[in-house]
Amino acid sequence: MRHSIVAGNWKMHKNALETEDLLNELIEKLPTDKEVEIIVAPAFTNLSSAAQHLEYTNIGVAAQNMHQAEGGAFTGEISASMLTSIGVNTVILGHSERRHYFNETNAVLADKVNTAMKHEMRVIFCIGEELKDRQTKQHFNVIFDQLTDGLFHLKKENWEQLVLAYEPVWAIGTGETATPEQVQEMHAYIRNQIARKYDESVAENISILYGGSVKAANAKEIFSQIDVDGGLIGGAALVADDFARIVEAI
Known about the structure:
Layout lengths: L4 E5 L6 H14 L7 E5 L5 H7 L5 E3 L18 H5 L5 E4 L2 H6 L4 H13 L3 E6 L3 H5 L3 H12 L11 E5 L13 H18 L2 H6 L2 E3 L8 H5 L6 E4 L6 H9 L2
Parallel strand pairs: 1-2, 1-8, 2-3, 4-5, 5-6, 6-7
Helix pairs in contact: 1-11, 5-7, 7-8
């Protein structure tokens, strides 16, 4: 069901002690009276301790990635069952950094989504275009292909396990900024494509987050857009005060 979500992707930051310190700060500073789901995604090495640390709080835990195979000779990889066995039932898939640096294709991501669904995990699925796509006016086509190849093979009922995150790659660490109007335009487009493929009910019940350099200073304006249901936060999620202010902006 569509609801407000603020998720912090910690990427490759924070060792064990630093993770514990940041979690303690978040427990102290994050609001508990907001109608918003709060999620943090620490590194794999700290997921188990984070899940235990946050068990009786209003903060959930997600993994930043997982492998599509059930198990096997995949050195350095993590399977869905490894995550669920430590109480982590949400996973981020398709992040732009995974697509770019690790060559994760739409086909690979579709397999990952299938595995996550099989294990009854919830998926935060990232989609987004690069600067060249925006400059050549191919941005809608790129998003359409990512939706079609990555998710549109799913059954209608599978969408209850999905959250989408739109992250324009061109607005992350480039000096370029997506306007609230551009954010709303793309979120509305995504929702419309889901309605065309499935129906209005699926489209209206899916939470779509924005993930393009959300900060405390711009969060309120972005979150006020009618089709934006929250944010997938990068750098600002590593500073408790900043993350708390973003959550307050919902």
